[in-house]
Specification:
268 residues; mainly alpha; 14 helices; 62% helix; globular
Length: 268
């Protein structure tokens, strides 16, 4: 049954008021002048989206507008390198050698992951190595600080507000602790450098302990990368240059080609 016009109008007014207050509560900005006020407003907005007051306060207390991150985000210099330059920087021969050694040492694990997800070891190793040197370099930046800065910035505010909420939810639901929320500039977490929304969707338990812990568990990381690629269309036996699936990992064509290059070298 359709609502009467008066009820419909009242409902529409209430929704419009809610949306308007939400937009006002977390209004983006193109410089740091409104950041502190935005943070206070976003604490309340996070709670309206189901985040506990405890986590919202702990996540955002003390965050500061990161001008260097904004400058980096707007230039993305690493992805302007040539393929040869990018490979030399992110997929050198030393990475290929380490990847082969890890594959040989953990072949049973990689075989199990491939059997379950259809993703071959070389491409997983290429991504794992290029992202964090196989877990050695996960980043030490406060995830909430970077995400709050990007969520406030008008350039991609919707995307990073969603990432900021997801990061809070990871803590709120006990998937990660507040102390584990350390990573790279854009809020990437763990050995696979997943953004929080991707962590929620694609992180899986690879070692059977009941947790999806990509900060400490290499097995969880390996399985989670495989699950991510499978969910983005990876086909077993389709070669390592499946750029449609790799585009789900990173939109840079240089990065995609470097992953395929490294995977082929690892497989040799």
């Amino acid at each position: 049954m359709r609502p009467t016009s008066s009820i419909f109008a009242a409902a529409a007014f209430g929704l419009g008021t809610l949306l308007a207050s939400g937009a006002q509560a977390a209004q983006c900005g193109n410089d740091g002048s409104g950041f502190s006020a935005w943070v206070e407003d976003f604490k309340a907005e996070a709670q309206s989206r189901g985040v506990s007051a405890r986590v919202a306060e702990a996540a955002l207390s003390g965050v500061a507008y990161d001008r260097s991150l904004i400058a980096y985000d707007r230039t993305q210099r690493p992805f302007k390198l040539s393929l040869e330059q990018f490979i030399a920087k992110r997929a050198p021969n030393s990475l290929i050698t380490q990847a082969k050694a890890r594959w040989a040492k953990n072949r049973a694990l990689f075989d199990r992951v491939e059997a379950k997800y259809g993703v071959e070891a070389p491409v997983i190793l290429a991504i794992w190595g290029m992202e964090t040197a196989f877990g050695a370099i996960q980043g030490k930046k406060n995830v909430f600080n970077g995400l709050a800065t990007l969520a406030y910035d008008c350039r991609r505010t919707d995307k990073f507000q969603a990432e900021l909420i997801a990061a809070m939810q990871l803590v709120d639901k006990g998937q990660l602790s507040m102390s584990e929320m350390r990573g790279a500039e854009h809020g990437e977490i763990g050995q696979g450098q997943f953004l929080p929304t991707s962590y929620q969707k694609f992180a899986v338990d690879g070692d059977g302990d009941g947790r999806s812990d990509m900060v400490r568990s290499s097995a969880d990381t390996i399985a989670s990368i495989a699950n991510y690629l499978r969910q983005h269309g990876w086909q077993r036996g389709g070669g390592f240059d499946q750029y449609g699936a790799l585009a789900g990992w990173n939109s840079s064509s240089v990065y995609q080609k470097a992953i395929a290059y490294a995977a082929n070298k690892i497989a040799e």
